[in-house]
Amino acid sequence: MYRIFPLLCLLTLGCSSDRATTKAETPTVAAEAQAPPEREAPKAGPAPEAPQRTGDPKAGYQAILDAAYVNCGVPSRLYGGAAILGLELGGAPAPGRADSLPFYLSRLKTRSGQEVVGPNCLSCHAGFINGKLVIGLGDTQQDYSDTSYMVSELSPATLEAVSALAFLSKGEQAELEKFAQRLRTVMPYTKTAVRGVNPADNLAAILFAHRDPKTLKWHDKPLLEPPPSVVVPVDTPPWWRMAKKRSMFYVGAGRGDHARIMMTASTLCVDTMEGARAVDKVMPDVAAFIRSIEPPAWPWSVDQKLATRGRDVFEDNCAECHGTYRDDPGHTYPNKVVDLADIGTDPMLARGASQFAHRFIDWYRKSFYGETARLEPQKGYVAPPLDGIWATAPFLHNGSVPTLATLLDSSKRPRFWRRSFRSRDYDRDAVGWRYRTLSKGHRAGSGMNRSLYDTSIPGYSNAGHTYGDSLSQSERTAVLEYLKTL
Ligand code: HEC
Ligand code: HEC
Question: CA 418 to CA 437: how far, in whole Å?
C-alpha cells in the first residue's frame, strides 16, 4: 500500500514541500540543455485588441474547482482509501468549496462515468506568499526537476498490484491506467534543471504531438516529432495580469479567444471533439474569473513620500513599456512586446522552443483551438503589467532573479543562488525571496540539490533587462518603494 503515496504525487506531476515530502538529490543537469532555435518570428509588436466572450466570474471559480476539463485522475475510491491510511496529499482546502480535497485537486466524473480525483488549474496557478494561499498566484514551489522516482510507480505491474489491493472495478482500473499512461507519455518532457520553474510549454507540445488536430483523438505513438526533452523553463505568471493583457503567454503568443486558449489543460485527457466543446462552454466563465482577480496588497508599511518620488522615476524610466498605475481613468498599459535584441533576457523561449515551434503552431491552426484562437509567438517578450509584482518573485520569464532589488541592478544578480521555498522567507527590503549566493553551479559539480538556481544553464540565464542600471542608488530605492504599492 505504501506505493499509493507516490502514486498520488502523480496528481501534480511531483510533490512540493508545502504539500508533501520532497527528495533532495544530487543534480544531473543535462549538458545538452540546448534547444535549437526553430523559428524566425516576425519582429515583435503590440497585440491588437481581440473581442472576448463574456462570462460569470463566480461560476468560473466553481468551474476551476469542479469542472472536468482535465478529465482524468486516480479513482476516487483509491484516493479515499489512501486518505483513510493517512496517505493523502497535504494542502489547504480550496476557499469556498465544501469538499475537503486540497485546493489543487478536483473530484470529477469522467466522460466514462467514473469518479476520479485529478489535478486542476490551481496545481500551477495558486501559490503561497507569507503563509497565505493566493488563488491566481503562479506556483513557484513545485519541483519538476526529479520525476525519476515515479517511473516505477507508473509501471503496469505496480498499477496492477495497486488495483488488486484496492479491489478496483474494471472501469476504475481503466481510468487509473489511462491517467498513468498519459503521465508516462509526458514525463520525459517535463523535467526541469532546477526546482521552482514550470515545464507547461513543453507539456503542451508533447500533448499536441499525440493528438489528431481534427478529431483530438489520442494516439499512443506521436503523430508529430516530439519537442526536445530538455525543458525551456518558465516562471508561472500570475492570473490577474489578464485583466490588462491582450495576448497570453510571455512571448505574446496567445491571440484571439483567450477562453479557448485557457483550456489547453484539457489536452491531457479530453479525447473527443464533443468533450472539448463541453469544456469550451465553461471557459468564458473561467476567463471572466481570471480577469476579475485583484492582486494581493503589500501587507507591510510603505514610506509614502519615498514611493511618490519613486513614481516619478518609474514614469520617466519604466512606464513607456510597463504603463502607469495612477487611479482610473489615468492609467495606461501599452501591451508592448519588446524585441529580443532590446530586452536581452534569456532567448530560448522567444526563439521558438516548446509549443512555439513551427509544427505545433501549425497543429494549433488546424485544430479545434484554431477555430477561434491562434498561437502567434513573437521574437521578444511582453512587458507585463506590474500590478501585485511584489508577490510574484522570482522575476523574469524564467524566474532567474530572486528579488526586485537585484532586478533593478543587474550587477548584483546572483549567478548561483538558493532559496528555502518557505513562503514566509520573504525579504521585505529587497522585495523578493531571501536567498544565499553560492560559488558553484550544477555544471561545476557543486553536488548541491536542485533548489540551487544555476543561471549558467541555457534557458536559465539572468541576463538582460538592464533598465535599472543607469539609475542612481537613491532612485532605485525610490522605485523599489513604489513597486510595493502596485
Ligand atoms: C502544469 C502547470 C499549468 C497548469 C495545470 C495550467 N497552467 Fe496556465 N500557465 C502555466 C504556465 C507555465 C504559463 C506561462 C506559459 C508561457 O507564458 O510561456 C501559463 C499561462 C496561463 C495564462 C496566461 C497568463 C499570461 O499572463 O499570459 C492563463 C490565463 C492560464 N495559464 C490559465 C490556465 C487555466 C485556466 C488552466 C486550467 C484550465 C491552466 N492555466 C492550467 C502553467 C499551467
Ligand atoms: C524597453 C521596455 C522596458 C523598460 C524601459 C523597462 N522594462 Fe521592465 N520588462 C520589460 C520586459 C519585456 C520584461 C519581461 C522580460 C522577460 O521576462 O524576459 C520586463 C520585466 C520586468 C519585471 C519582471 C516581471 C516579472 O514577471 O518577473 C519587472 C519587475 C520590471 N520589468 C520592472 C521594470 C522597471 C522598474 C523598469 C524601470 C526602471 C523597467 N522595468 C523598464 C520591458 C521593459
Answer: 7
